[in-house]
């Protein structure tokens, strides 16, 4: 707007102020806007002034908020007072909040119900019962005695001040009690240790045919466990399954899976019959815990109670088995389903991919179409993940084609998956094309593209992209730095790597993880800066792990530094004394330095320990046939063919490059 010279008005400014401190705009921007408002003579508008006060309060800049508030010419509006009373209360400055309440009263401000409820909440939190009673008087004097909102706040205030009888008094004065009032009273009893009274109120609630909600159930459970009365709930009615369900799914949403399962067991014990929504939540709790034992118990329950035909229940069973690594069980559930939905197909596709069978995911994808379903963005993202992991470019292009032809909604996950797929398949050009035409880009998008350039040896482009990312306002994370460091490593850019490593800590406050350290050791070691690499390892604030010492050992081997290599090997063998391949690196170092005695000693000690050198292994899949190759092994039935082809290739290559490159 400013660039186009469109003048913002009070309304646009107050909207902007309202979104400061939401993660996009911060207090800095808030202050800048305040400056703009002062410079452009907007001040004096009560609406805007309130927005400024509110902005400072939510940014935690209470002194600024007070200054602006204090200078207001006209303080007759209750809104700005409410903002002040509420802001100070929220930051835990209850005394200030109550003082503001008194000031407002002296200025004869016309209060609203929120003014009382905020002040009462400050009284409750600071357990200031006498101030609370004053507010109670004000409530009556100003005619709010029949406002249920204010009365519930009064009740809660008395309960927090441990005046349960006063809370009760309020409760019985309210004639038309909504669920909130019942809940407030039950929780007042629970929090004051009066479990029986809580249950009594709950009984009254049932007599009055008030349906319970999630809060009610939670409080009742606290009180029944308080008095060890687990079967109290057996008087519950059918509809309580909704309340139970909302508690269980609430726990799942907050990753409290144990609690969710505990609730489910209590529900079962109380004879409340679950519905399919509850079953989906419970199964997802088992996947969250990756606990296949509980999961298969629940599966048994599902079959006994006839839920196995429910598509959502079956899909979550597949997800559960898949996350726990029980592919067979997942397949059994899948093939046992007479009617499948897109959700089930998607679950199965991601199940194969997650369990190391990406080819199966790829094969399943066309079947979705054959069954008459339209793949959605979830199907596409999963199958692209599978395709990336085996670098199957043609399949990837086919899926990309589906995506375009079927006009499937292309969300940011799909586009990220496409970028990743093209990068993994070596098609940087396509990845870049999608990247450039994509809006908005998220952190994953930038990280993938940076990693893409890095792994294709285009370190400078990766760095340039990093700058672009920063100027587009996206904050890098530890993955970004790992991509950058590894791209410096691939290109051997030592200084750039060191600078990045520094700025990661000092400028961005990101603590390096082991992978970052390994990258740095690799970068220094490969370039032959062995002493520097060792110094770096010694200065690490965490215990170096095997990969650090292994990297140092390999670097020493490449640069023939026996002394440091032995030291690295000692540390490595201390961590992993029985891994044969660790000895082999040291053995090779001795061999290459022609230290035959040492090599012979080491070989002997390996033999004593019963350690073997495992051969390197590689395989290739051609036309559904897998050929495995082991180093030093010539047992493949097609050895002759293979070597003939290799030799021919070798000859042709030497011809092509005019002997400029020696082919080994
Ligand atoms: C409000 O006014 C009364 C009487 O005028 C005075 O005693 C009291 O100190 C004032 N309270 C505040 C917070 O200013
Ligand atoms: C560093 O680069 C080399 C050469 O490209 C690579 O083999 C090695 O795995 C890289 N190290 C790390 C930690 O990425
Ligand atoms: C090498 O080149 C010859 C002649 O151009 C050709 O017949 C042969 O197939 C090539 N070898 C391979 C392995 O491509």
TrEMBL record:
Keywords on record: Repeat
| Top-level taxon in the UniProt lineage | Eukaryota
Q: Which GO terms describe its biological process?
A: RNA modification
Spans of repeat PPR: 77-111, 178-212, 240-274, 310-340, 341-375, 442-476
- An example of a Pfam family matching this protein is PPR_2
GO terms (molecular function) for this protein are: RNA binding
The signal peptide, as residue positions, is none
InterPro entries recorded for this chain? E_motif, PPR_At4g14850-like_plant, PPR_rpt, TPR-like_helical_dom_sf
The name this protein carries in UniProt is Pentatricopeptide repeat-containing protein
Q: Which organism is it from?
A: Acer saccharum (Sugar maple)
């Amino acid at each position: 707007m400013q660039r186009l010279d469109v003048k913002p008005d009070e309304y646009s400014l107050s909207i902007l102020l309202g979104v400061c401190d939401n993660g996009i705009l911060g207090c800095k921007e808030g202050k800048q806007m305040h400056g703009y408002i002062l410079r452009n003579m907007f001040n004096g508008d009560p609406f805007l002034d309130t927005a400024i006060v509110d902005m400072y309060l939510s940014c935690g800049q209470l002194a600024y908020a007070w200054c602006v508030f204090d200078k207001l010419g006209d303080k007759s509006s209750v809104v700005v007072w409410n903002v002040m009373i509420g802001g100070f209360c929220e930051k835990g400055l209850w005394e200030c909040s109550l003082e503001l309440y008194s000031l407002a009263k002296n200025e004869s401000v016309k209060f609203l119900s929120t003014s009382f409820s905020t002040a009462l909440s400050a009284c409750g939190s600071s357990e200031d019962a006498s101030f609370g009673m004053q507010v109670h008087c004000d409530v009556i004097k100003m005619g709010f005695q029949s406002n249920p909102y204010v009365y519930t706040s009064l009740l809660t205030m008395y309960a927090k001040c441990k005046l349960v009888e006063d809370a009760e008094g309020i409760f019985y004065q309210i004639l038309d009690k909504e669920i909130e009032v019942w809940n407030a009273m039950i929780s007042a009893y629970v929090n004051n240790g009066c479990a029986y009274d809580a249950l009594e109120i709950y009984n009254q609630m049932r007599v009055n045919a008030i349906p319970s909600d999630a809060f009610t159930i939670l409080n009742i459970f606290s009180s029944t466990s308080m008095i060890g009365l687990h079967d109290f709930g057996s008087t519950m009615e059918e509809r309580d399954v909704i309340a139970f369900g909302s508690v269980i799914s609430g726990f799942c949403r907050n990753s409290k899976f144990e609690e969710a399962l505990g609730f489910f067991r209590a529900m079962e014990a109380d004879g409340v019959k679950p519905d399919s929504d509850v079953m989906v939540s419970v199964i997802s709790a088992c996947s969250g815990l990756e606990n296949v034992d509980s999961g298969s118990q629940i599966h048994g329950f599902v079959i006994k109670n006839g839920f196995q035909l429910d598509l959502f229940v079956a899909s979550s069973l597949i997800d559960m088995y898949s996350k726990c690594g029980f592919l067979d069980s997942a397949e059994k559930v899948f093939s046992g389903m007479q009617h499948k939905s897109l959700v089930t197909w998607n679950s199965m596709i991601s199940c194969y991919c997650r369990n190391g069978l990406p080819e199966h995911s790829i094969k399943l994808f066309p079947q979705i179409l054959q069954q008459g379903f339209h793949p959605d963005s979830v199907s596409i993202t999963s199958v692209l993940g599978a395709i990336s992991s085996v670098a199957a470019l043609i399949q990837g292009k086919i899926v990309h084609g589906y995506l375009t032809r079927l006009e499937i909604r292309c969300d940011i996950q799909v586009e990220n998956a496409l970028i990743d797929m093209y990068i993994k398949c070596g098609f940087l050009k396509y990845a870049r094309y999608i990247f450039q035409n994509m809006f908005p880009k998220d952190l994953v998008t930038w990280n993938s593209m940076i990693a893409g350039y890095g792994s294709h040896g285009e370190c400078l482009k990766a760095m340039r992209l990093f700058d672009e990312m920063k100027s587009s306002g996206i904050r890098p994370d530890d993955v970004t730095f790992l991509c950058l460091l590894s791209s410096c490593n691939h290109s051997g850019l030592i200084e750039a790597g060191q600078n990045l490593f520094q700025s990661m800590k000092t400028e961005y406050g990101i603590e390096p993880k082991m992978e970052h350290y390994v990258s740095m050791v690799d970068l220094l070691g490969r370039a032959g800066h062995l002493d520097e690499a060792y110094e770096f390892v010694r200065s690490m604030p965490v215990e170096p792990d095997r990969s650090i010492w292994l990297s140092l050992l390999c670097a020493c081997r490449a640069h023939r530094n026996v002394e440091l290599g032995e030291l690295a090997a000692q540390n490595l063998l201390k961590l992993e004394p029985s891994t044969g391949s660790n000895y082999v690196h040291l053995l090779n170092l001795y061999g290459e330095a022609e230290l035959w005695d040492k090599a012979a000693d080491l070989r002997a000690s390996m033999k004593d320990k019963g350690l073997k050198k495992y051969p390197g292994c590689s395989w290739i899949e051609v036309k559904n046939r897998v050929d495995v190759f082991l180093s030093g092994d010539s047992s493949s039935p097609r050895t002759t063919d293979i070597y003939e082809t290799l030799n021919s290739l070798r000859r042709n290559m030497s011809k092509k490059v005019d002997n400029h490159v020696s082919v080994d």
